[in-house]
Specification:
The protein has 223 residues and is an alpha/beta fold. It has helices spanning 41-52, 73-81, 85-101, 114-125, 166-178, 204-222, and strands at 3-8, 14-20, 29-33, 56-60, 107-112, 131-135, 153-160, 183-191.
């Protein structure tokens, strides 16, 4: 089982996070970024799944202990709005990448919803990063543009998503393709947050396929 730890953010401050270790020597690392609900049990379970697949997984707590109940979208919106995405990526998320790389040779970054957008930001702005996977999250191009992604990138998106819409995904993919990036984009006949097994939008078949693709991608680029 994993545990809460404290690691150093790039601003020198201590940052909290949930760490699940693979147990192998010099295992590659994956930083896992929360949905807008906070660092809840489902995200910790994702870290455990990565550990079982052979990765050290660290989920930084970007809300510093605040966890929003699933039914309270208004509170989740407020919590997400209070987060400076770029600063969080440059400081806590980059610090988590550095922590994992100090225990292994390579590290990737993934996230869901809000965390998916952070994964794209990290793919542009974190120099130590080796690969990134986003689940239904795309940030504004002014924060991180597809054309500036620096690492192999994989994205998973839902065809019935009114937050990260199919039109946004199409444009994002066109920019990746036009700029010659190493990328994979997958679309699923599901709704936003189809990976979250604790919510009614969970799609078991799509989640299984997306997870297998994500793990294979990280094994390819973090080996």
């Amino acid at each position: 089982m994993g545990k809460m730890i404290s690691f150093k953010s790039t601003d020198g401050q201590a940052a909290p996070g949930y760490l699940a270790e693979a147990g192998g020597v010099h295992a590659p690392g994956v930083v896992v970024i929360q949905e807008w609900w906070g660092l809840q049990g489902q995200i910790k379970a994702v870290c455990e799944r990565f550990a079982a697949a052979g990765f050290n997984a660290l989920a930084p707590d970007l809300y510093n202990g605040t966890v929003v109940p699933y039914h309270d979208s208004a509170a989740a919106t407020a919590a997400m709005a209070s987060l400076n995405f770029r600063a969080a990526t440059d400081q806590a998320v980059r610090g988590a990448v550095q922590y994992l790389k100090s225990h292994g040779e390579k590290a990737g970054l993934t996230g869901f919803c809000m965390g998916g957008a952070v994964a794209v930001i990290g793919a542009v702005h974190i120099p130590e990063l080796d690969a990134a996977v986003s689940f239904y999250g795309i940030p504004p191009a002014s924060v991180a543009a597809a054309t500036d992604i620096r690492v192999p990138f994989q994205g998973h998106f839902a065809n019935r998503d009114d937050w990260c819409s199919p039109a946004m995904v199409d444009m994002f993919e066109e920019e990746l393709k036009a700029s010659g990036k190493i990328y994979e984009i997958y679309r699923y006949d599901g709704q936003h947050a189809f990976m979250n097994s604790e919510r009614d939008v969970y799609n078991a078949s799509a989640a299984k396929q997306a997870w297998e693709r994500c793990v294979a991608f990280f094994k390819k680029y973090l080996a």
